Amino acid sequence: MRQSMTIIPTLREVPSDAEVKSHQLLLRAGFMRQTASGIYSYLPLGLKVIQNVEKIIREEMERAGAVELLMPTLQQAELWVESGRWNSYGPELMRMHDRHNREFALGPTHEEVITSLLRDEVKSYKKLPLTLYQIQTKFRDEKRPRFGLLRGREFIMKDAYSFHSSQESLDEVYDRLFTAYSNIFSRCGLNFRAVIADSGAMGGKDTHEFMVLSEIGEDTIAYSDTSSFAANIEMAPVVNTAVKTGEAAKELEKVETPDQKTIEEVSSFLDVPAEKCLKTLLWKVDDEFVVVLVRGDHELNDIKLKNLFNAAIVEPATPEETKEILGVNFGSLGPVHMKTSEIKVVADAAVQMLENAVCGANEDGFHYVNVNPDRDFPAVQYEDLRFIQEGDPSPDGQGTIKFAKGIEVGHVFKLGTRYSESMNGMILDENGRQKPMIMGCYGIGVSRTVSAIAEQFNDEKGLIWPVNIAPYQVHLIPVNMKDEAQKQLGEELYEELTRAGYDVLIDDRPERAGVKFADSDLIGMPVRVTVGKKAQEGIIEMKIRENGESFEIPVGELLERLKTIIG
């Protein structure tokens, strides 16, 4: 491609609204432009990068036995009502009406559509297993679009769905797709981890996220420092190592704590460490209120609470609800002598090991000291309900937990019969009985993956694309297009490299050398070939973008050198 015939609008200044490196560089290097908040146009360079990622995805998906199709973006509300997600998905679902006042949604995902399609076309176990995928634009009305392509309202996604007649078949395909995803992200050159995850609004069990390690990631990964264990912090189980010290139980006592409401305030006021305080919370679990207890130095993990009750929605009670139900304000709640004995109380496992602890006295401005769980509030269910912390033992028994930030680029789910049961996706089994199809779901954020690659591959000069992701493999630069020898040799090399199968961008613009070189570094192609003052001698310069190494070579050695560097 001739640079004079395409559009690569590079910028010298960093856009003021671009917060992270990938967003800044993709804008500055002319790969994309914003058309509205969280919505972008992909310019020619950006589209080529996306197509290269899609090519890798297609190759690995087809190798795993998946078949490509394309489903509509516009989805009728009736399908979402069938699945039960029309009201529960949340405000991220973009809804609209057609001219006949029928309700539709712009698809954020396609479980409903694919289940509807397969229930009409597949009636027997003999046609299963079947794995179908698509690469398509998706829509989610993010409350706060940010970081460019990492959190947008319109984005490109690869979503796949598998259908099975048995759990064993699902397990087999899940493992195959897990391997395919690992191959995809490895081929993209990414430093990533596959972590145990929560399925969220998708439903299902046994899920993994593929997280690209990055300081600007919005997710926290808990991983072992000596083993392969890794999990999203929301899903990391906690090994309870708390033990009783054998401290003699003291008499329960109510003490005045005026205006002391937070754990930090109470701990300081009573000169008691936070780990000897008890945090009492009121949460609404679907339509039921539940009291939840955690140690003062721990944080409640609401995902674990949700999973414990198999709930659709969990949320903290409001101050008004708390006052009405428990008769006291936040900051003075406690499990001892609560207003109502009918409300269910659950506690994190570490709470049971507390001795002579502190908790709210259910009276504003007062706390109990010398609280002992089994004696003072015996009717409690103990579970793993807290967030794991750095330094905790790894759940697999190997090493200790460390934290890292990650960008989620892929997610695989075992959906089970969540959608086939609610939407009547039935087949006849080998005995002629009707049963719901068992499903799996597998997603990759294509545009997000491009941004994650840009986040990991850059330096102070610009982007550094991996060879198989780069928009072009070779950036060919005749320095002075008015110099006939440089122009002619540049054109000859362009033809030769193109015939040899290389994807080449030739900078044939009438620009100064400094502008061409700065743009080349910013755009970040793997190899730059410069045709300069030694063109008449048949000498050219090669520069490797990844390490900055440059050297002069005779023209005749170019193909052999490129074969070594690029393949």
Automatic annotation (TrEMBL):
Protein name per Swiss-Prot or TrEMBL: Proline--tRNA ligase
Gene behind the chain: proS
SUPFAM superfamilies in alphabetical order: Class II aaRS ABD-related, Class II aaRS and biotin synthetases, YbaK/ProRS associated domain
GO biological process: one example: prolyl-tRNA aminoacylation
GO cellular component: cytosol
Lineage of source species: Bacteria, Bacillati, Bacillota, Bacilli, Bacillales
HAMAP family named among the record's database cross-references: Pro_tRNA_synth_type1
Family that this chain belongs to: Belongs to the class-II aminoacyl-tRNA synthetase family. ProS type 1 subfamily.
Domain Aminoacyl-transfer RNA synthetases class-II family profile: 33-466
Keyword Cytoplasm: yes
Catalytic activity as recorded in UniProt: tRNA(Pro) + L-proline + ATP = L-prolyl-tRNA(Pro) + AMP + diphosphate
